[in-house]
Amino acid sequence: MHKAGFVNIVGNPNVGKSTLSNLLVGERLSIITSKAQTTRHRIFGIVNGTDSRGDEYQMVFSDTPGVLSPNYRLQDAMLNYSLEALQDADVLLYVTDTVETPDKHSDFLQKVEKVKCPIIVLINKIDLIDQTQLEEKVAYWHQQIPAAEIVPVSALHGFNTSGIIDHIADLLPQAEPFYDKDQLTDKPTRFFITEIIREKILLYYKKEIPYSVEVEIEEFVEQEDQTDIKAVIHVTRDSQKGIIIGHQGVAIKKLGTLARRDIERFLDRKVFLSLYVKVTKDWRDKDFALKQFGYDVKK
Length: 299
Fold this sequence. Notes:
Number of strands: 9
Order of helices and strands: EHEEHEHEHEHHEEHHEH
Helix content: 25-40%
Strand order of the largest sheet: 2-3-1-4-5-6
């Protein structure tokens, strides 16, 4: 017998969804920073294996953006990814943590409570509280979602996470694989390169800059001894372009160096990276621009 299903990871920003997703998939597919809204897309990570009874399985983990109250069209698209994850899940992982206000975005949580598939509530960052506080958190979530199984974890330290895969395998429906067994993700190489560059922008620049930026690969040429990449950094205002470039180009040069190192590790070959900055006014609110950047925009 073969089992397969979509294991969708949802929750509020900064609770550790991407850290958990990378841990369960066994690869660093989602970028991780301390800033909210780091994840913008829905990213599939595919895990194949054999359960304790000898049945093969395929788990399609789906990392999603943190739930938010949209202020512009980009955030509408991000929220839609999380809402879609509630609809097509075979197993739902709702990630909370020991820091956030539990009823934050309660309207989304109400939708989670109505999901018909098995739900596992993962209480992350348990290394930050004591046993009494943890027991209170577990009791709260048992009351909030009675049908869910509650699992305290620390995704960062890998605590109490080893059995999650086995437990999910028990919950999967019988089905043929959705993807080839040697496929790791649904995203192309160019997507991960843009994410690496955007991660460095999130880490290197402050205030509104990271949230006003989108990265687009304009050229990707594989030479015999290296890969040549030309990437365009889109910003919404002229002042942001100046900040990205920096005085005498110092900032963008440092950004390029940091990004190139990680891209070379990702591609396992030498990379020549060229970065350019372009002002694309109000791209976050323009459907045609969002579609160009790969977002699933709904009316």
